[in-house]
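Private note to self, pasted from the team thread so I don't lose it. Backbone tokens:
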């Protein structure tokens, strides 16, 4: 049964939308698959800018393609029920009006629209996969995750995030007067050491942060800082990044 779920997972990806897309003939001879996969992932977006991502897929005919012990178990069809977690402003459209495909079908889907909020969005696809066992069809509800859409702020370059991404942005406002915001981009969830030091190397603030994939935000108060220049750093144990912050408390 777990293998059937795995197969439906493949179907799942398939069910990621296609707004008037046409299945790419490049994949028509494939036994099954999803393109792009969760390693390549979806292209990033920008707030206020039109977004479009096509997902191509090929459904398997026989579960035995994935696990020989299930040879002869038919993949009858798969029906997309929902796509959860899309950034505000985006929706999906499948290349079939019924949002369903037969086993062995090639299909595609398009995620499209104009993002309205920045952030890192984890996408979950929910579908029903239909199989035939002992001549009786039954459905299995499947949830499939692994795709991410990162949406950046308008006017800021969008960044394709992978597991090794580690980027520290300049604080804003800078100079800081009372409050400032620091953002960094991480490629995965991990433990981050955050520190602020003065130019003599004295630590004036430190904290441990559990990052999420995508944009992470640190809001700080500089009310207790003396006016001057400070260095703020993030470290994940492998890499350390540092930038300069000016505090002007009048």
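Design output:
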């Amino acid at each position: 049964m777990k293998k059937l779920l795995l197969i439906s997972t493949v179907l799942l990806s398939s069910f990621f939308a296609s707004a008037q897309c046409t299945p790419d003939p490049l994949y028509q001879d494939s036994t099954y698959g999803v393109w792009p996969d969760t390693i390549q992932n979806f292209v990033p977006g920008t707030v206020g800018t039109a977004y479009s991502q096509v997902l191509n897929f090929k459904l398997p005919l026989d579960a035995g393609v994935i696990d020989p012990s299930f040879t002869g178990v038919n993949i009858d069809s798969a029906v997309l029920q929902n796509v959860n977690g899309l950034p505000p402003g985006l929706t999906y459209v499948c290349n079939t009006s019924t949002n369903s495909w037969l086993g062995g079908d090639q299909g595609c889907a398009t995620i499209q629209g104009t993002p309205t909020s920045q952030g890192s969005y984890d996408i979950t696809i929910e579908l029903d996969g239909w199989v035939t066992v002992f001549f009786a069809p039954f459905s299995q509800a499947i949830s499939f995750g692994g795709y991410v859409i990162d949406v950046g702020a308008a006017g800021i370059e969008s960044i394709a995030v992978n597991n090794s991404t580690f980027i520290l942005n300049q604080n804003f406002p800078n100079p800081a007067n009372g409050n400032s915001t620091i953002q960094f981009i991480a490629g995965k969830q991990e433990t981050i050491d955050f520190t602020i030091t003065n130019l003599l190397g004295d630590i004036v603030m430190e904290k441990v942060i559990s990052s999420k994939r995508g944009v992470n935000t640190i809001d700080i108060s500089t009310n207790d800082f003396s006016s001057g220049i400070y260095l703020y750093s993030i470290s994940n144990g492998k890499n350390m990044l540092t930038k300069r912050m000016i505090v002007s408390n009048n």
